[in-house]
């Protein structure tokens, strides 16, 4: 499975972006999905995750502003980001796994990663 993110860019604080993740290969082997981000000098952190059963997880920093969803036809995730803040500036990565149906919270549990898409929020 290969993943390619898109939808990043430069936006003013308070604005919105929608990130997409295109998958190729054995896409229907994918169960759990997630979006991570990594800011310069910081560790990669989980922003939102989605199980195959549509259960969701959000980091505290994302709650109420970011929404993860799944494209059922393509079996890939979206990340709708509203009310963006400068501290949301980071490289955003799509992640997926062919493992069990539950939400995955650990970096090492994801089997497939995209190359990332840059999100920059200006103040």
Overall average pLDDT: 95
How large is the share of residues in beta strands?
over 45%
* Helix share bin: under 10%
* Sheet of most strands: 7 strands, mixed
- Unreliable stretches covering 5 or more consecutive residues: none
Alpha-carbon distance between the two ends:
37 Å
- Distinct helical segment count: 0
**Morphology:** globular
Can you give me a brief rundown of this structure?
This protein is mostly beta strands and 123 residues long. The chain has no helices and eleven strands.
Describe the structure.
By secondary structure, the protein is mostly beta strands. It contains no helices and 11 strands. It has strands spanning 2-6, 9-12, 17-24, 33-38, 45-50, 56-58, 66-71, 76-81, 90-96, 112-113, 117-122. The strands form 2 sheets. Strands 2, 4, 5, 6, 9, 10 and 11 form a 7-stranded mixed beta sheet that branches. A hairpin with a 4-residue loop joins strand 7 and strand 8 (76-81). It starts with a strand and ends with a strand. The model has no long low-confidence stretch (mean pLDDT 95).
Q: What is the element layout, followed by pairings?
A:
Elements: E1 2-6, E2 9-12, E3 17-24, E4 33-38, E5 45-50, E6 56-58, E7 66-71, E8 76-81, E9 90-96, E10 112-113, E11 117-122
